[in-house]
Amino acid sequence: MPSASRVKACIFDMDGLLLDTETIYSQVTNKILEPFNKTFSLETKLKMMGRDVRTATDILLTDLELPLTFEEYNDQATALKMTYFRLAEMMPGAERLIKHLSAHSIPIALATSSSKQMFLIKTENHGAIFKLFGSNITCGDDPDVKHAKPAPDIFLTAMQRLDVSLEPQDCLVFEDSANGVEAACNANMKSLWVHDMRFSLDNDPPAEHRATERVTSLLDFDPAKYGLPPFEN
After folding, report:
1. Burial level of 214, CB count in 10 A (0-12/13-18/19+)?
2. What is the reported pLDDT for 75?
3. Residue 158, class by beta-carbon neighbours within 10 Å (0-12 exposed, 13-18 middle, 19+ buried)?
């Protein structure tokens, strides 16, 4: 259950939370795997979700025993991503929530494992929404982010850039991956796990998780639970 303390700032992941890119990641991966007659399993995908590019790719190459170096795989993947990521759509409830928080002057920040280059490509058709974050955008290749999720670095960096007076307990992190939730917990921040059941090995909700709250869509999020302005409709 949410803590009684009021949330003062919200920090958002991007892939799979605000943008429906996880299906595109799967398409890109399967296209590269075709010549090797390999299958991209959900088990492997779940290990990769929320990780930085290097770590995620190493997991894939190891799990599937692919005869490719990181550089060989990444070159192919980057070329495909440059095309497909421009087609990414907003996830249900994402635009409504960001606009709502912005309209009520709630500080918001974006903390994505994506590189700055990929961030710009993914958000190309959604500039008006992501502009609401202003300069409060931290990407995975930012030099101040020394360690990738599940380390807390990216969320702590985003918080400090948003407002130096903020404390971790003032922040609510929105995440769709287990690694991201772990990173939020390691940062001592509240976390909302938006558990996309398309990427779940079990139709039943997990018996245990470390998130402050679990929902299956941003449409189910109730800001009033966290002392944030309620939705008008």
Report:
1. middle
2. 96
3. buried
DSSP run (H or E) holding 61: helix 53-63
Which entry of 15, 142, 153, 170 is annotated as an active-site residue?
A: 15
58 is catalytic: no
Residue 226: Cβ-neighbour burial (10 angstroms; 0-12, 13-18, 19+): buried
Token pair 């995440």 in the structure block, residue = 175
Check residue 206 and give its pLDDT: 65
Instruction: Identify the pLDDT of residue 217.
Output: 96
- The reported pTM is 0.88
Residues 6+ apart with CB under 8 A from 206: 214
Place of tokens 């490719």: 68
Assigned token pair, 76:
């192919």
CA distance 46 to 51: 10
> Half-sphere exposure of residue 182, counting CA atoms within 13 Å on the CB side?
11
Under 8 Å CB-to-CB from 227, ≥6 apart: which residues? 5, 6, 7
For residues 218 and 189, the answer to whether their CB atoms sit within 8 Å is: no
User: Mean pLDDT of successive 10-residue segments in the chain (233 residues)?
Assistant: 74 96 93 95 90 92 96 95 94 98 98 94 96 97 94 97 96 94 96 89 71 95 96 87
d(CA 143, CA 194): 28
CA 15 to chain centre: 4
Report residue 215 as tokens.
């929902």
52 has catalytic annotation: no
| Encoded tokens for 219 | 């449409």
Contact of 123 with 115, CB cutoff 8 Å: no
